[in-house]
Structures are given as C-alpha cells and as structure tokens.
Amino acid sequence: MKLFNLLTTRAGLLSGLMLLLLSSMASASLQSGLSHYDAERYEPAYHAFRRAAEQGNHQAQLNLGVMYLKGQHVERDLVESYAWIALSAQSETLAQEGTHDLVFSHLNEAQQEKAVARHKELEDEFGNAALLKKMQPTFSGTGFSVKGFRPVYAYAPEYPRSAARRGREGWVDFMFTIEKDGTTSDHVAYYSSDESFTDAAMEVIRGFQFEPTTIDGEPAIVHGATYRFVFVLDEGKDHERRRGRLVDRHLSKVREQAATGEAQNQFAFAYLTQAAFSYGGEHYISEENRQNPNDWFMKAARQGHSSAGFFLGRNILYGDACEADPRKSHFWLLQSANDGVADAQYMLALELFSGARFEQNTEQAIFWLKEAASQKQAARLRYAWLLATHPDDQLRDGALAQSLWDTVDEDYPDRQRYYMTAAAIAAEQGDFKQAVRWQSEVVEDAEALKLPMTQRKAHLALYQEGKALRKAP
C-alpha cells in the first residue's frame, strides 16, 4: 500500500504539472486528452493520448504511462506503465525527470524483465528512429519533375520598371490556397528576389483560376499550392546559358555546405533544387545537382528543422517528387505544427475540416486553425469566417470573429477573403446594411479579376434579404 501511494502521488504530481506546463505546446490530440483528463473523462483521455503517443508525441507517451500506473480507464499495469514512460524518455527533458527509473526500481525481477522487453517492442514501433524510417517518402524523379496544379486562367505580370532600370532579374515563389471552385486565396510570397517582383506578381495571381481538385468526385481545397513567376530581361539563348551556369555554380556551393550535415544548409539546398530548374534551365544544371529535394528536406527534418518538415509533409501530400501518402504527410505536418510552423498548422486545419485526405476531425481542425491564427493572417480570416458562418450555434461567435478581423492589416492582399469575411461578420451581428456594403466590394473586385460570380452574387442577395450566411467549412 505504501508503494502504491508513493507511485500514485508522484504520478499525480507529474500529471498535474503536465496539465499546467505542457498544454501550450501540445498537439491537438494531446490537448484533447488533457482536457478530458482534467474533467476526469478517462476513456476519451486515454484514446486521445494513445493517438498522440503512437505519432511520437513524448508528452502523450508519458501521460499514457501515468494512466497505466494509476489504473485510469485501463487496469493498473506497472510493466506497461514503465514501457510507455521509458519511451517518453527519448525526450531529454523528460529523461532528466527520471520517472521511468523510479517506476523501474519498484518492479520485481520478473516484472523488470517483462518491462524491458515491452519497452523494446514499443521502441521498435513508435520510437523516434522507427517512426522516421516508416515515414520516409518513396522518392520519384528529381526536383524538376514535380507535380503542379493546372491553371485554367493565368496571367503574366508586367516587368517592374524600377527592376528593369537596375537590370534586376529573379523570381518570386507564391504559396496559396486553391478553393473548391478553382479560385485562389491566402496568397503569400514566401521567396522573392526583389520586392517590386512581389508587387507585380500579386497583381495578377489574385485572378488566377485552377482546374478544381476533386477526390472521389467531390471538390477539395488545396492549401500549399505553389507558383513561380520568373522575371528575366533577356530570353535569348546566350543569356539563358549564362544564367543557367550561374545557378549551377551557386547550387554546387550550397550542396557542398549541405554535405557537412548542417540542417539549415540541407534545407537551403532542398529548396534551391526545386527552384533552380525553372530559373536556370534544366539542361544547364549539372548531374550532381539534379537531386530529389525531398531527400534533403528529409535529412533536415530528421535533425528537427521545422520548416523542412512542413515542405516534406506538403510534398508527400500532393505527390511532388515522391509518391503521395496521406499517412506519412500527416506525420511530418504534425511534427512541424507542434514546432509552431503556422503553415503546417493551417494545412492540417484545412485537411482535417475537409476529410478528403486525412480523417475528418472538426475538433482537431479548430484547434490547429486557432493555433495558426495566432501567427498567420490568412488563418485568422479563415477562423473569423468559420465563427461567423458555421451552421452550429455552439461554434459561432460574431464578437470573436470581429476581434480577429480587426487585427488583419487593412491592406491585406487577398481582398476577396478580406471583404467577404467582413460581410459575413456584419451579417452575423445583424448589421445587414454593412454586410451588403462589404459584399458589394467582393462583387466589384471579383468582376475586375474576372472571377466566377454566381456564389458571390448569391451571398449579396442573401444579405439584401436580411439573412446571415450559414456554411460548413
């Protein structure tokens, strides 16, 4: 009895500390488990911790061990408790706590033998090394053969006069969302060699329309779609050759730096191999620089490079230079999201709402959307839209939606998303005059961009009738 009290007291203290200290860094499953545990709903807490533990979350592995230690939802099992807590000790911080050693010291010899064997089983399946091996993408081709989404309407930007006067050349990489109707939103220039190129490209990309993506016949949102605008002054062969050789020399330098094993250099080489072929010309890139970017994203991600994990997860989801695999994609996006990468959090949210590629889970989707909204304006607007339009009365909150919208820059480049969200919020709060005004801005802007008008005008008519919009994400 004394032994039981010692262990449960230590475990209870540890669990309480986790509830206080680890919730801010938790994954969606872990956060859900902590909420259920705090409310003494042990069955859903156990299943939430189990999901996160099997995805490699060390805090969840520790919590699962505590539940086995205390017999919460499961029979009390010190062997299973030790195995999960020892698995969590892959985290240096948790290893220093020494909880696994404490549990092990109170097992008899036969139990210790079983505990070591069980820990080995868990490590072989859910340990860091095992998960990394299982989640390695199946490579296909190299960086210049990646899959793209087919634009139906695309426009070339005007060459900025200021850049032309300076003889400036380069490119801009945009990341954006393709909505279910093929229009684009959430436009972000994540690499640009000159600000004037960004401004020129933004003017036209808002009007791009893509062939809608369908999965099992149903339209699906695509986040993380990319498009590169290349700005060159001279498209002649001699100039192309010089540009290609310059790019190849730069790639060689970065490749040599990446070969030293430093994660940031590995990430840089991976990114540049994706970019080089469209700017420098495929046939001017030497054989040693024609490498699959996912191989290098993987190397960087294995060392904890969070952005590399996002790009790897994104590429695996869409089958860019590898086989598409939603399970592996989810793993890498989750690691990146847990490290605070807003794009990974946002992509997880959209996919979990959709259910097209990942299993649909509204609770987790909202969790990740809220996390992303703390950093990313696109996520803030998407969350505000959900709060203003969701069919579930329990989820709608017009006041919170308004407060989120108020924090978005007035010159936010995605005017469609900015205006339509303002209109939906006004309607939710009963101000239909304001809703009509904002939705009229949506229609006017869409007409200038030559975007599809049916849905936009339908929303305007709804507000003119004094009705709020109700739409599931």
From TrEMBL:
Q: Which GO terms describe its cellular component?
A: membrane
Q: Name one GO biological process term.
A: transmembrane transport
Q: Which InterPro entries match?
A: Sel1-like (IPR006597), Sel1_AlgK (IPR050767), TonB/TolA_C (IPR006260), TonB_C (IPR037682), TPR-like_helical_dom_sf (IPR011990)
Q: Where in the cell is it found?
A: Membrane
> Which residues constitute the signal peptide according to the record?
1-28
Topology of the protein relative to the lipid bilayer: Single-pass membrane protein
Q: Where is the TonB C-terminal domain?
A: 144-240
Q: Which Pfam families match?
A: Sel1, TonB_C
Q: Determine the domain of life of the protein's source.
A: Bacteria
Sorted UniProt keywords:
Membrane, Signal, Transmembrane, Transmembrane helix
Does the UniProt entry include the keyword Transmembrane helix? yes
The family database entries (PANTHER family) matched by this protein are listed as: ERAD-ASSOCIATED E3 UBIQUITIN-PROTEIN LIGASE COMPONENT HRD3 (PTHR11102:SF160), SEL-1-LIKE PROTEIN (PTHR11102)
NCBIfam families linked: tonB_Cterm (TIGR01352)
Q: Spell out the protein name for this chain.
A: TonB family protein
